[in-house]
């Protein structure tokens, strides 16, 4: 059933939710419309596995239970092309607009016997395949709406949004709190949005950092704070603590498009002729060391030359961190020699 045309008011101050229901994940973003039509990201949640493939796995589980004694597994092994075609039909089937009972063509031959069949799936059974996805969407939207009371629209996009089961559920649960909308071709909406964003990435002026990002560094050793195994003594007898996670930006922190932050580092050895930067990320707000639990990396590395050692450890290396639309670009500069090196880190990877 086609969606009726709806007039949307995106004047400054309007807040809306985008629920991107893809094959792998359900990504939910909250935007606030700024003056000039730019957007501020108020909330970003992703990284789950509750998208369309979760629905598909529930369907396959049902097939395995229905065809007992390993028959379904044997079918997948002996007739992989037919099994793949059958699953592709199911993907179209689960996104069908509406029906009480749906029919799905089943395989044509098995164990040297040729026949055709149709599999009937009731609406209730189809809804059971969506259950985990619907629970996740409900919980996520409820949490967001409790935090952001001025949400005006909930926009459903992505391939799974074609399903009347998903659309109907979201409308039933949340239409009293916001207007629920779904474009005629929700999958195409993602592609069009990507093209528009590619042409003008400044449209999203402020993003939420998906992770806490940092670099590994040395810090003066403090026995009351640092682990003894992290102790490092340099050639001059100075005691350092190694593997310190030096934070560049925090998770969920607002980051302006095209903004730059500067950090200063010094060598740990007087005769040190280069300085390495290893970049790490974590979903934790605060960590002490780069090898703490939940820390990933290094996700990027670079080394800047420091050929002039005349000033010993009193040599400054400036690290400039530039936040673009989808990536972080870091530039390290040895202020004595003006030697520079740059590296790029994915900013919105999930």
Automatic annotation (TrEMBL):
UniProt key word ATP-binding: yes
Keyword Nucleotide-binding: yes
Top-level lineage group: Eukaryota
Entry GO MF terms: ATP binding; ATP-dependent protein folding chaperone
UniProt keyword annotations, A-Z: ATP-binding, Nucleotide-binding
InterPro entries associated with the record: ATPase_NBD, Hsp_70_fam
Family: Belongs to the heat shock protein 70 family.
Name recorded for this polypeptide: Heat shock protein family A (Hsp70) member 12A.2
